Amino acid sequence: MIFENRLTEGRLIKRYKRFLADVELPDGSVVVAHCANSGSMLGCKEPGSRVYLSPNTNPKAKLDWRWEMVEVDGHLVGINTSHPNKLAEEAILGGVIPELSGYASLRREVKYGQNSRIDILLEEPEKTGAANQCFVEVKNVTLRVGNDAQFPDAVTARGTKHLRELMDMVAEGHRAVMLYLVQRGDCLSFAPATDIDPTYAATLKEAIEAGVETLCYVCDLSTDGIRVDRPMSLGF
């Protein structure tokens, strides 16, 4: 994924009301940027951090800027949660995630389960029955604890619901995959954030035992763009 416009560097003043961030630009002016991240952003919202914004070209948008990345200990971290589904789609179609290759079609945001939408639905019409579909849920990972990338960074009842719906798909005979995209390059392995949301961590373990596949890939980030790079080991 290449950014359509050159990113603008700034310094974070504060993130507030979940979806807003005050940022000081190099000329000393202060702008309000949209923060497309509903999590706590633990470790990624320190005042004074170097951040990167993209101009909001949507004429209907209320804000002129979108917060894309933050620099943490010299490493870029992608905090915009509107990107992972697109990143996953590009990676699957480009053969970067071989575990998800070989399907004839890919659709995003398809209704399924209990009033939910699956992030990516892979289908192979030549296969018969339920086995011709693969349900892929994608999560953005920004939290680092020690050497681990961890998810979630806040209690997520919604995330737990998604795991249970993936289990339901497996029970119906489908393939179901939980895909974690780590948008930072300074972690060695992935693990659920048991200390933050023990219910989610326990449900993930239950989902794996029920047949839900778990994949984790780390992204390569630059101010030019973001791409899925390589698999990351699971540390649990």
From TrEMBL:
All residue ranges annotated as the Sugar fermentation stimulation protein C-terminal domain in the record = 83-224
InterPro entries in the record, alphabetically? SfsA, SfsA_C, SfsA_N
- MF annotations from Gene Ontology: DNA binding
Q: Where is the SfsA N-terminal OB domain?
A: 13-79
Family of this protein: Belongs to the SfsA family.
PANTHER family recorded for this chain? SUGAR FERMENTATION STIMULATION PROTEIN A
The protein depicted here goes by the name: Sugar fermentation stimulation protein homolog
Q: Which organism is it from?
A: Kordiimonas lacus
